[in-house]
Design a protein that fits this description.
Elements: E1 2-4, E2 11-14, H1 42-53, E3 60-64, H2 71-76, E4 82-87, H3 100-104, E5 111-117, E6 126-140, E7 153-162, E8 174-179, H4 186-207, H5 221-244, H6 259-272, H7 288-298, H8 312-330
Parallel strand pairs: 3-4
Antiparallel strand pairs: 1-2, 4-8, 5-6, 6-7, 7-8
Length: 337
């Protein structure tokens, strides 16, 4: 679980995580298994583990993709300042008849907005024009063994965005989102959509532009667990650097680096700068933007104001180079007999 500042969208740090391995094939069908015996339990456990870590936050919204669309999660993780936001996987039955899809089809579209879509395995990077509609729904309790003790219904808000004029041969964007937040106007609905998009960034860095975790040839669980932890941390730092690179938010470098690493960055800053003013680090010393500028230079960025900002791949490459330098720096006082 990654913590993100809801107001500014900047990555804070990893909060907690859930690790599981599979021990052979399970014969009992998924629908007949108790919640404690399902892998989907992680969506509830991880949210509960995060509560004490985020206790000082004014409001916490747990955001998950379609795998998090399990009815028990709406019951187990609600309360107080904690909210949920999940992309819909199941066309759930509603109190009084009908389903989510049949209900939302009756609502008119109320707003249209263009957003920048980052590249994914499904589509190329592009501007997408999305139409939005939203409303309140009463989701009925499912007919499953685990749901018998749950409330007969849960009141949620349903938001749908559709790309109605997608380019030819391109899969259009079509999201249905469920949330516990009150959604009474278009601005709030669009904010919910924007929050949901945030989760794509971390997985994009882990899978496509980070360590390419899916390409690993490791075959043992303990090594895969270690690699996953390394990949998550590296992706988190890369995301922080990408968001900070333009210096719009003045976060300290200590958000991503320890004091020894910051000392290494200070040494490197003088070495990667050139004599001309255009080639000097423009950001305040020891800020995250200052660190991102140095890491980008190590990754091959030319740093000219006319150039595009360093992208995630450049920052990832620079971060790998920096970490090797930092490890060498840490060994400088080690005496080898």
């Amino acid at each position: 679980m990654l913590a993100v500042n809801a107001a500014q969208g900047n990555c804070l740090w990893l909060v907690t995580g859930s690790i599981y391995t599979r021990h052979g094939q399970v014969d009992t069908p998924h629908a007949k298994r108790a919640l404690k015996d399902k892998e989907s339990r992680r969506w509830i456990d991880t949210a509960i583990q995060a509560r004490p870590v985020l206790a000082q936050a004014a409001i916490v919204t747990e955001i998950s993709d379609r795998e998090g669309d399990i009815h028990a999660a709406w019951v187990h993780t609600l309360g107080g300042r904690f909210h949920r936001l999940t992309r819909v996987m199941h066309d759930r039955a509603l109190v009084g008849g009908g389903t989510l899809s049949s209900q939302v089809a009756q609502w008119p579209f109320v707003s249209t907005r263009s957003i920048e879509l980052l590249a994914t395995p499904t589509w190329a990077q592009r501007q997408a024009r999305l139409s939005l509609r939203f409303g309140q729904v009463q989701v009925a309790r499912p007919d499953s063994p685990d749901a018998k003790e749950q409330p007969p219904s849960v009141s949620l808000r349903l938001i749908e965005v559709i790309e109605r004029d997608a380019p030819e041969a391109t899969e259009p964007v079509h999201w249905r989102l469920l949330t516990t937040h009150e959604v009474d106007d278009e601005q709030t609905a669009w904010q919910i959509v924007q929050w949901r998009w945030t989760i794509e960034q971390l997985f994009r860095l882990i899978k496509l532009q980070g360590l390419r975790l899916g390409d690993s040839q490791l075959s043992t669980a303990d090594r895969l667990i270690k690699l996953s932890a390394i990949a998550a941390q590296a992706a988190c730092v890369t995301l922080q650097l990408t968001q900070a690179r333009e210096g719009k938010v003045h976060e300290p470098a200590s958000n991503a680096f320890d004091e020894t690493q910051i000392q290494v960055l200070e040494e490197l800053n003088d070495k990667v700068q050139d004599k001309t003013q255009l080639q000097k680090n423009p950001h305040a010393r020891r800020t995250l933007a200052w660190a991102a500028w140095i890491i980008a230079k190590l990754g091959g960025w030319d740093s000219y104001p006319s150039s595009k900002p360093a992208g995630p791949i450049t920052l990832r490459n620079g971060l790998e180079y920096f970490q090797a330098i930092a490890r060498g720096w840490a060994l400088r006082d080690v005496c080898i007999p």
